[in-house]
Amino acid sequence: MHYGGDYYPEQWDPAIWREDIERMQEAGVTMVTVGVFAWARIQPREGEFDWRWLDEVLDLLHDAGIAVDLATATASPPPWATTAYPQMLPRDHEGVVYSPGSRQHYAPTSPDYRRLAADLVTVMAARYAQHPAVQMWHVNNEYGCHLHYDYSENAERAFRRWLEAKYRDIDTLNSAWGTVFWSQSFGSFDDVPLPRRAPYIHNPAAELDFRRFTSDALLELFVMERDILRDAGATQPITTNFMGAFPAADYWRWAQEVDIISDDTYPDPNDPAAYLDSAFTRDLMRSLRPGQPWLVMEQATEAANSRLTNAPKAPGQAEALSMQSVGRGADGILFFQWRQSRRGAEKFHSAMLPHAGTDTRIWREVVHLGETLRSLPELPAGPSGARIALVFRWDSWWASSSPDLPTIVDYERHVRTWHGAAQQLHLPVDLVRGDEDLSRYDLVIAPSLFLVDDRTAAALQRYVEAGGHLVVTAFSDVVDADCAFRDGGFTVALREVLGVETLEFGALVPAGGGHGPGLDAVTVRTPFGDLGGHTAAEVIRLRGAEVIGRFVDGREAGAPALTRHAFGDGHADYLATIPDAPAARAILESLSEHRAIAPLLEGEPVSFVDVSRRGDHVTIVNHGVTDVEVPISGTDISTGQPVTQVRLQPFEWAIIRTEGETR
Ligand code: GAL
C-alpha cells in the first residue's frame, strides 16, 4: 500500500528538503511523485540540462527509504520553448491562440512539442532508468485536462493524416460522413477542416472522428514517452494519471497502454452526494483493468482551489474517501500535494503538510492515515463480487453529445444515475465496454447507448441468448459506428434481442422548466410501482416483446413504456424513457430480486453507507453525518474480532473479512 503525494522540491530551498523527508517519515510516506512541473528547472535552455538538484533529491529520498514515482516533466513547457517555437501553442475553436503563462500550453500534435518532449525524456531516461529510488514512471500529467480539444494548424494536419489512415481514400470518408449533405464532398483529405467555429452545426460524423482523433493524439504522446523510457531500459511500471470519467480520452483504449492505472479524484466536499460520484469513478478505474490494483495518484487533504468556493473536507472525510478507494481496489493513496506552496496559482490548495504547519488537524489526519494504511493486511485485488455490469462507452458518449439531437441527453449523468442507485442498494457494479464477454454477469444495463457498433450488438445479443438479462433505455441503438442511421429505422442492431422498435424519440423539455407532468417528466406504471422518466418518452412498436409498464401521462399516455422480451435463454428489457434516480433504484430492486442478486449487506439499505468488496474483504464507509449500524458477519480486520454488525460514526470505516461468496 503506497502512501504519499506530489512533491515539488524545486519550489523550496534545499535546507527544507531534509525537513520534508523527516516529516515524510513521520507521516509514513512511502512514495512521492517528483518532477511533474519541473521542465524549466531541469532544462533552463534548449540543449542545457541541470540534473544536480534532482540527483540530490532522488538520493535523499532513496536513503530515507522513500520510493519515487518520477514524472517526465512534459506537462508544462518552459518559456524558452514557446518563445523559440510559438507554433507549438494550441488554439481554441475560434482560432484564438492559448498563451503561455499557465500550463498545458502545447498542441499535442505539434512536431516541435513532440521533439522537445522526446529530447527531455530521452536524457532523463538515460540518467534515471536504473536509479534505485525510481519505482514508477509518471508520464506527463492529466493529459488534456484543461484543453480537451486543440484546433491549431498542427491539429488540422494531424487530423487529416489520421483520417487518411482510417479511410484510405477520400470517397470512403465522403460516404461514411455523408458529405453529400450541405455540399461538403471533399476532393482530397487536405480539404477536410477541423470542426472550428462555423456558421452553424458541423457534420456530427466529423465531430465524432475529431473526438476519436483527439483521444488518439493524446495517447500517442503517452506512448511516445513510454517507448523512450522502455528503450532506455526502464523496467519500472509506467503510468499517467487519469481523471475519472474524463470526456476527452477514451480510457478503455488508454488502459491497454499503461502498466498501472492511476487516477486523480476531487469530489466536492460541499456536496453530500459526492461520495456516489467518487464511487462511480473508483469503480471505473477498477474496471479498466479488472483484477489489477490501481493507485489514487492525486486527491486533496482538505480544500482544492479550482472551484468557485472550495469547501474543506470535514474531519475524517479524507480518510473516508481514501478507504472508499482502497475498498474498490486501490493499492496506493497519494495526494496533491506534499507541501503547500507559498507562491503561484495553487497556493491555496491544501496539502499533506499545510502552510500552517504540523500543529494542525490536517497534519494529524495525514499522520493517522499513514498509520492506518500501514496497518492494513494485504488485500486481495478482487473480484468485486459484481453481478451487475453497466455499459459505459466514450464513443457513444461523444456521439450523443452532438448539438443536433432531438433533445439533450446527459449520457454521463444517466450512467451515474444507475450506478448511484446500485450503490445505494449496496449492489456492486462493474463498468464494461459492452463488446466483451459478459457471461459472468446476471444483469447488464446499457443506459442511452446511442451508438452501437456491430461488435457491441453481437456481444449483447450473445449475452442475452446465453441466459443474461439486458436492460436498454431510450436513446439507444440510434446510430452505427459512423454516426449514421442504419437501414430499417431505429433500434436495428438490437431489434431481435429487444423485440421492440423505436419509431419516435418523443423529446421532453428539460427537467425543471416548470412545464409540468407529461412535458418535462413522465410517469410509467409498472407492477412494481410508478417510475419517473425524463428527457424522452419514445414511441415504440412491439416486435415480440411483452409490455410491463405503460406511460400514464404525456403524449404517449397509455402506450408501452417498459417491455420485456424473451430471447434465447435470456431476457431483454427496454425502457422508453430515461429514469430518474428513484426509478433506476426501483428497477434495480425488482431485477436483483428476480435474478437473485444479493446486496453486499443484509437487511434494508443504509443511507450514506458505501460498501465494496475485494475478494473476501468487504469495506464499509459511512459518508453521512450521523452514526449508522450495519449488519455484516465476519471478522473486523482492525480488531481481529468476529462481528455480526458494525457501528460507524460519520466518516468511519470498517473492513470485514467475510466467508461469503467471492465471485
Ligand atoms: C490536478 C493536477 C494537479 C493540481 C491539482 C489541484 O488536476 O494534476 O497538478 O493542479 O489538480 O487540485
Please name the CATH architecture of the largest domain.
Answer: Alpha-Beta Barrel
Tell me the name of the CATH class of the largest domain: Alpha Beta
How many structural domains are formed by the residues? 3
Radius of gyration: 26 Å
**What is the average per-residue confidence, as pLDDT, rounded to a whole number?**
97
Bound molecules: beta-D-galactopyranose
Shape: globular
Fraction in beta strands? 15-25%
Number of E strands:
26
For the largest sheet, list the strands in their spatial order: 11-10-12-13-20-19-18-15-16-21
Ranges where pLDDT stays below 50 over 5 or more residues in a row are: none
* Secondary structure tally, helices: 17
What structural class is derived from the secondary structure elements? Answer: alpha/beta
How much helix is in the residues?
Answer: 25-40%
CATH topology of the largest domain: TIM Barrel
Supply database-style keywords.
663 residues, alpha/beta, Immunoglobulin-like, ten-stranded mixed sheet, nine-stranded parallel sheet, 17 helices, binds beta-D-galactopyranose
